[in-house]
Amino acid sequence: MNFDKNAAGSSPAHALLIELKEKFPVFANGMPLSIGVDKQIIERLPDIDRKLLRVALGIHTKSKHYLRNTAKATARLDLEGHAVSEVTESHRTHAQGILKQRAKKADERRSQIRKEQQDVEEAEAARKRSESLNLLVAKFSRNPH
Q1: Beta bridge partners of 76
Q2: Residues 6 or more apart in contact with residue 78 via CB below 8 angstroms
Q3: Fewest CB within 10 angstroms: 41, 57, 118, 141, which?
Q4: Are 33 and 40 contacting, i.e. CB atoms less than 8 angstroms apart?
Q5: What is the pTM of this model?
Q6: CB neighbourhood size of 15 (10 A)
Q7: Is residue 69 within 8 Å of residue 33, measured between CB atoms?
Q8: Under 8 Å between Cβ of 26 and 81
Q9: In this structure, what is the dihedral angle of CA atoms 122, 123, 129, 135, given to the nearest 10 degrees?
Q10: pLDDT tens, position by position, 27-75
Q11: Is the distance from CB of 73 to CB of 96 less than 8 angstroms?
Q12: Would you place residue 143 in the very low, low, confident or very high pLDDT band (cuts 50, 70, 90)?
């Protein structure tokens, strides 16, 4: 498999991930994958670039969709969608922790953006007040002589 940099408008790993989602519904549905799923993929797609596969799997397993499903799932699935092992409590807790951490960071970013917007609005209001005051000063400080 040969993926160019612009495939699917993104990186080769993203293009591979799109292909995996098309071939295997467990990817498309973001279900928790069995440990060692990479070996199953290599068996079915022997021409696959292993390094690229690792990157694609990393992108997939760090996605919000995958983490949400893992946080509430009880079973890990093989490529056919059959339950092959359990999702341990520690894996569920880990997924929940990552999601909470990301939500906290997103809230902090939104808060920072709101503060920056407020600062810009306040600066603009101060500039307009200053401009108005300067106009008044100019108007009333004219020398009638």
Answers
A1: 85
A2: 26, 34, 37, 40, 84
A3: 141
A4: no
A5: 0.70
A6: 21
A7: no
A8: yes
A9: -160
A10: 999 999 999 999 999 999 999 999 999 999 999 999 999 999 999 999 9
A11: no
A12: low
